[in-house]
Amino acid sequence: MNVVPDTSAVIDGRVSERVADGDYQGATVYVPEAVVGELEAQANAGRDTGWDGIGELQRIAELAKEGAITAEFVGRRPTVAEQEGAGEGDIDALIRELAVEHDAVLLTSDFVQAEAGKATGLDVEYVEPVARGVTEDDGLDIERFFTDDTMSVHLKTGTHPKAKRGDIADLHYVRIDDAGGPTDEEQMGQWADEIEATARTSRQGFIELSEPGMTIVQYRNYRIAVARPPFSDAVEITAVRPIAKTTLDDYEFADELRDRFTERQRGVLIAGAPGAGKSTFAQAVAEFLNDSDYAVKTMEKPRDLQVSEEITQYTALGGDMANTADSLLLVRPDYTIYDEVRKTHDFEVFADMRLAGVGMVGVTHATRAIDALQRLVGRVELGMIPQVVDTVVFIEAGAVDTVYDVTTQVKVPEGLTAEDLSRPVIQVVDFETGTPEYEIYTFNNQVVTVPLDGAEGGSSETGVGRIAKQEIEREIRSVARGHVDVELQGQNDAVVYVEEDDISYVIGKGGGRITDIENRLGIDIDVRTHADRPGGAGAAGGSGDAGAAGSPKPQGEVVQPEITSRHVVIRMDEHVGETVEVRANDEYLFTATVGRGGDIQVSRGSAIAEELEDAIDRKQTITVVPA
């Protein structure tokens, strides 16, 4: 009798098992080199299946030495392309060809391989795959570490088991006292094998992600990540489960949010820090929408939202959420919960579905409510942001902390008065009070986020005030030759300090020049000399050297702008998407968002570029600080 086992049969130990049963006594076993190569690749990647298969090969060699069977390694090693195409059947085809060549029975635990072999006329022996580990009714051994108030369990080779316990607003990372001493490598291996095997065989579990060194499992209401070398420095298991299941009634603004969700399909971002309760709130929203007769689906990778059976949970199709989105558009959901929206591609998919008319609820990390919108800047066209996201819900310590309403208007930005400064402005309004807290708009080719009076992070000099000062300085410097300082006295009044020799140039004959500037800016300007500035004698002389001895050391990251023929460029490779302030000798110049290419580009000839180049010429220290 001739036998050709495939990779699945070798991994499951079916050859030695059948020899022990007497079925294969005296048989000739042709082991394909393709099987050996596949097992080596799996073992090198740290996968237990590879080591199991190599153990079976060693048992086959021992049986051949004892004379129980004849063993021969045949065929060729698979190419890299064939190994990469193993999931598409390239290696299985090599094995079937060897079975034909040696007139052998194809032994397999792979149902698809068995059916393909029968279709090509092979004599096939199909055996059920081995169910490693325990049955689903037995549960997992690590479940014993979970108490009613345990959110997650953290296990790692050579360390004491730990857990995060408490309520969602007061979690503590503590050692599990009844777990014994540090876990050894053998114990960690047993737990990891049990988790993966149970996920494969249990109807209550599945493997969400399987990559060399990392497996993510969903079992019952547990999401379990199993990391192995070389991806991690040791075997590590992190098991997480929700400790609270809420309804929308449990949150502040419940009635208002219900009305908002049902009024029409919305674009919503649920934001908060890790562990703040974003996903718990998203689950409550999903259940409310489902109970309100909306068709609700989810997009998750991995899938860990705890929702009712009526809500279908989708993951990345072919590894890409864009494919999932294409499929969902055919399913036509009323609302889709997207957990999590984090990378640029996620925001693009989210925006595409929202603009297609689907109600979208995205979960994203942010430390402030406004930061959730900031993450859209540069990823979605600015004018489209209110169409993509019209509501931001910020979660802190398991509660709704802030709700923002996002709209767009064509207006003069708050604090400016000149009609020719009107532009599309995104207004971020506090949902509870109806008070605008931020404005987002384009200024000199840069997107700026301006906190209004009373907004979080606001200061005595608002962003609008800074921009107004820049406009005034630009106008005055176009006619003054020396140093210029500007002080705002209110929304519509300013004092400009110039060199004594520049007074006549700035005011002009009969006050005509300063009047023209006032009319353009919509601001009344009082022109004085530096000597008239209270406590400003040191400013006289117009040196502009704010970095002289005795001044405070500039704060932030020091940068060296590069001046090209068209732009002034500041490289910020490690801060893509962040909003920052650019300063000269710690004096504010402008606010900008770092572009996708990792830089800030200011067009030469603009007011901002002129200020920046002037600061560079004066050899001032240019720094960048978070906005």
Automatic annotation (TrEMBL):
GO function term, MF aspect, one: RNA binding
Keyword entries, A-Z: RNA-binding
UniProt KW Protease keyword: no
Cross-referenced CDD domains: PIN_VapC_VirB11L-ATPase-like
UniProt superkingdom: Archaea
UniProt biased composition (Gly residues): 535-547
Region entry Disordered, spans: 532-560
Domain annotation PIN: ranges: 1-115
Gene3D superfamilies xrefs: 5'-nuclease, P-loop containing nucleotide triphosphate hydrolases
InterPro entries the UniProt entry points to: AAA+_ATPase (IPR003593), KH_sf_prok-type (IPR009019), Nucleic_acid_metab_PIN/TRAM (IPR052041), P-loop_NTPase (IPR027417), PIN-like_dom_sf (IPR029060), PIN_dom (IPR002716), T2SS/T4SS_dom (IPR001482)
Pfam families for the chain: PIN, T2SSE
Signal peptide: none
Stretches assigned to the AAA+ ATPase domain: 264-389
DNA repair recorded as keyword: no
Family, similarity comment: In the N-terminal section; belongs to the PINc/VapC protein family.
PANTHER family named among the record's database cross-references: AAA FAMILY ATPASE (PTHR11603), MEMBRANE PROTEIN (PTHR11603:SF147)
UniProt name for this protein: ATPase, PilT family
Organism field: Halobaculum gomorrense
Lineage: Archaea, Methanobacteriati, Methanobacteriota, Stenosarchaea group, Halobacteria
